[in-house]
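The aim of this short unit is practical: by the end, you should be able to scan a pair of folded records and say something sensible about each. We start with the first protein, listed as its amino acid sequence and then its structure tokens.
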Amino acid sequence: MRYLKKSSGKYKLVIDANVIISAIFGGYPEKVIQISISHEIFAPLILKKELDRFIEKVGCKKESLHLKEFFDYLLNHIKLVTVEKVEKVSRDKTDDLYIAATIQEKVDFLITGDKDLLSCSNIHKWSFKILSPKESIDIIRKS
């Protein structure tokens, strides 16, 4: 399947919390964040709570402040959406929220490192593709 950018030249993306948190450590998740900023990014409201919970777990005040600044910067580029209709399609209710946001906003790609979410792509035939960070970089850069 070939993916084409919208007339605006931008993809519509949903990036889940595990990719955003993993971006702190570099690698493909960090590259995903770097190239995604120039596209349209959506996420369910739960994203903010997931990021806040991660900051609380860190414990170190100095590190927490840096993480909060990083997450706030990203959240300024992400449209958080209230999901209207959530169907149970995975083992995790939070994963279902990400899928529902992807469907609702007519997104091109859901980018995740979550193996359960990645496996959903093989089970369901949606209008969007669920991609790992590496796969998403390859597709976005080629277009």
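Turning to the second protein, read its sequence before its tokens, just as you did above.
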Amino acid sequence: MSGITLFLLALAGLLAGYFIYGTIVEKVFGADPKRTTPAIRLADGVDYVEMSTGKAFLIQLLNIAGLGPVFGPILGALYGPIALFWVVFGCIFAGAVHDYLSGMLSVRYDGRSVPDIVGYNLGTTVKYIMRVFSVVLLVLVGVVFVAGPAGLLSTLTGLDTMIFVAIIFAYYFVATVLPIDKIIGRIYPFFAMLLAFMAISLTLALFIKGYDAYPAGIIEWRSTSLQGLPVWPLVFITIACGACSGFHATQSPLMARCMRNEKNGRFIFYGAMVAEGVIGLIWVTLGMAFYEYINAHPNPAVVVNHISNELLGSFGAVLAVLGVVVLPVTSGDTAFRSARLTIADALNFDQRPNSKRLALAVPLFAVGVALNFIDFNILWRYFGWANQTLAAIMLWAGAAYLLHRNKFHWIATVPAMFMTAVSGSYICYEKTMGFGMSLELSSAIGIILAVAIALLLLTKGRNPLPDEPANC
């Protein structure tokens, strides 16, 4: 089978997943076009702002598509074909389900943030834990998504990285404080053009120039990467965005506060994740085609610049790299915005006055700037585990919501079990930040944990929790 045929089959699989499985998920959830959405009922001109479906989809895509669907697939390509399969099947059956449920549950809960969504379905204790966990994750994301694009821009221009760090932080602060339609709603269409150029031009150039997209040296099935790292569970941590990412649950409430009709949820939430899966597919393919270079230069920012220059020349590479820069920048700004909203929800802090938004944003950015001086690779490792742990928790909350209503909860329960096994195995196995156990013991613990939580859900989770809103 030729490389272009395999790529097109994978692309067709993602699109079929949206139209077929996405429709199934929507029917199981029970989207109701007659319900009044928070954007209309709670309009405040700041965060609850009614937007067109197309604009909401575009913002959702750019919110969730950070460095992950580029850097993750580049490094994940070294694990072989499992990376390709994980992007396609993980996106359809785990990531897009996760994004749809997190978005639609936020719509049902008046646009509330992920700690409240989880708390309504898994209990007050979990809600309090999630408030701290999600804010920490969001600040980590914001910081990680400063260092990454700043490094790319520094490579592109030769200017000092700290100049771009300062510029990006300044933009993040303004975008976090101003009403969502003032900056984010206006500049994202321009960013989308750069993103589209990057995705389409690199893909076309790869095949037109005759590169072997899936060479024999990388497409062979193996239990370890080319660098000797075990496929399980590392590939499922390495490739998050593009397949399944808990960070998305923190972003979905932003558009849940702007969506006009519940029937648009499949396009905005499930569809945006599938679109991100396409980006992930492109970079897995590029990574496999250039796997020898990646193996020798495992810095994703350097790889992006090299691939772009090889395929598009110097001018095209500038536009392509800028397209890659767009991804983390358009996620970093909303990461800090989501952190502000999460804290505001917890404190019932009215966010209409400018002074109250500033009161939360200033200390958040003070912490973010301080974290920026920690080594990027350390932050990325902690982000990877925390990200997939949040994905598992959100999927368990979605499963509980469906189970409460006697609906087919397995669409969320099965991927929740898988992501729990991944996260549990990883933290037990990881040598630097985890417990350094053997792979066999770590895997056994992860699987046992996933099964135990599933049994607990099935025995205790059929009745709605007492503090869940009655109209949900």
